[in-house]
Amino acid sequence: MSTPLLEIQGIHKRFGGLHALNDVGLSINAGEIYGLIGPNGAGKTTLFNVLTGLYQPDEGRFHFDGHDLFRKKPFVVVRSGIARTFQNIRLFANMTALENVMVGQHVRTRSGVIGAIFRHPRARAEEAAIKQRARELLEYVGIARRHDDLARNLSYGDQRRLEIARALATRPKLLALDEPAAGMNPSETEGLKKLMQKIRDDGVTILLIEHDVKLMMGLCDRIAVLDYGKKIAEGRPEQVKCDPRVIEAYLGVAPE
Amino acid sequence: MNIDFLQTPRGKLITFAVLGIVLAILPWVLTGGFENGKSWVRAVDFALLYIMLALGLNIVVGYAGLLDLGYIAFYAVGAYTYALLNSPHLQAMLPYWLHNPPFLLMLLIAAFAAGVFGLLLGTPVLKLRGDYLAIVTLGFGEIIRIFMNNLDRPVNLTNGPQGINNIERVHFLGLDFGRPVEWLGLTFDMVHLYYYLILAFCIVIIFVTLRLQHSRIGRAWVALREDEIAANAMGINIRNVKLLAFAMGASFGGVSGALFASFQGFVSPESFVLMESIMVLCMVVLGGMGHIPGVILGAIIVSITPEILRDVINPLQEGLFGKRVVDPENLRMLIFGLAMISIMLVRPEGLWPSKRRAREFHEHDEEARA
């Protein structure tokens, strides 16, 4: 394997006295599904926010696909190819499903005020392409028939799917999913797993936070474990599962 | 009203034709039908100016969800820009080529100046939301007014509270809009000429907002209103999109202000008090935030109702009590306030909301009942 798609080293993030991320480093290779687990409050979501530009790390190195993204604004991060979903779904509740996905394409399109007012051929073509692609993406995640419904009126599982479609609309190379299976029943989770595999097979690398250990073990190529802002283990699922430090973090002191 | 019919091309054509005819003959019906018809046409002219203002504010408040309580400042900037370049007040000091610029260029200058002030307001409030934003914008509106009030010293820029007089009327297409014109046996007075002029620009602004609404930019504004963090994470450049909303909204205000200054022939800080900002916000909220026809309706109602009341209250009082008991100006505000409160209680989504917004409020009712 050549250089990894995403590489971070020595990332620190402090909130006042709280050292939320302490010297975290990881690298994700193109085409894998990379899992991130850890007890509550371990810093997983903080790491996510750092990786997507919502938080600015205090120190460290952050390289993605040949770009230096250390302390870059979210729109720069998204433009270079990282998209995300949120742990508590954050859709544009009063826009339709289709519009949500159309907003996702903002970063890959150009039309400005002039284009909007005069609707010259290029702007028209772009708008049509945006709509077309939004339809395709809704189809792709399997909620095409709900395209005209407000996001807030979709079922929970469909909202999760819509968030994924909206993230895919930014044409990411790395899709970061923050607990996508939270609150889903087993059959919904199974469907989501298939969707993630399909996305990976179509060439998008996936970074995944999830509590559902069974899902993670079956899905991820590699897993990193965070505890108290530190990475305590990394490796293939079966390795991580047996790592004494991981067992300690989850269950307390390892048996003698 | 049969909505389906309005959606067909033929229905649309007929609607627009009828609307066009009504708008074209409206001032003549008013001058022909009423004793004080000219003052009614004047009121309609002002209603049109308010429509422009309300549509501008609608971009900031309705689309981007940024509560702005100082919007009238941009109206003031547009009006003073026009006044300074088109009145004798400063002309001794300004270079010759800046005197009475051609009308369209003048409007561009006014829109640009107001847009710059929009950026001036927008930049420091980028991180503010809700109440905090409202307070700062309110302060901004007052700052502009107080500046206009006091910039007669050390250099007499705005002529202070006296305001600027003798503003030139619009000269456009070979017409002097300050003088009556005879055409087709009709006498077009200033109020008529301005009616058509303001109407034309009003239509332009409606067209521009409609186009913006269904565009990449319009969607970004709505996304920003819905969830700023998610919009940020979707790669929308929050800073630029916010500033664009402020600048676009402000420039509409600037155009409206320039037309106001030329129509009135006189500007003073009194026209740009906080109450005016609140009125424009009322138009937007009352009509239906984010919905263009609603906002237009709101602007018409809020600006015309006081005129109607003025004509009704005095005769009514005299008929009932034989004398004027209450000053109509005060009563007007009372009735108006009551009307606003009851509308907010009964129809919080506004009088003519977009289908979507109506749904939004309606669902809450259903949830409450369930």
From TrEMBL, chain A:
Keywords: ATP-binding, Cell membrane, Membrane, Nucleotide-binding, Transport. Pfam families: ABC_tran, BCA_ABC_TP_C. Residues 6-253 form the ABC transporter domain. One of its GO terms (molecular function) is L-isoleucine transmembrane transporter activity. SUPFAM superfamilies: P-loop containing nucleoside triphosphate hydrolases. One of its GO terms (cellular component) is plasma membrane. GO terms for biological process: D-alanine transmembrane transport; L-alanine transport; L-isoleucine import across plasma membrane; L-valine import across plasma membrane. Signal peptide: none annotated. InterPro entries: AAA+_ATPase, ABC_AA/LPS_Transport, ABC_transporter-like_ATP-bd, ABC_transporter-like_CS, BCA_ABC_TP_C, P-loop_NTPase. This is ABC transporter ATP-binding protein. It comes from Chitiniphilus eburneus.
TrEMBL record, chain B:
The chain crosses the membrane at residues 12-34, 40-61, 66-83, 103-123, 130-148, 193-212, 243-266, 278-309. Keywords: ATP-binding, Cell membrane, Membrane, Nucleotide-binding, Transmembrane, Transmembrane helix. One of its GO terms (cellular component) is plasma membrane. It is a multi-pass membrane protein. It is found in: Cell membrane. InterPro entries: ABC_transp_permease, LivM-like. It holds the Pfam family BPD_transp_2. Its main location: membrane. GO terms for molecular function: ATP binding; branched-chain amino acid transmembrane transporter activity. This is ABC transporter ATP-binding protein. It comes from Chitiniphilus eburneus.
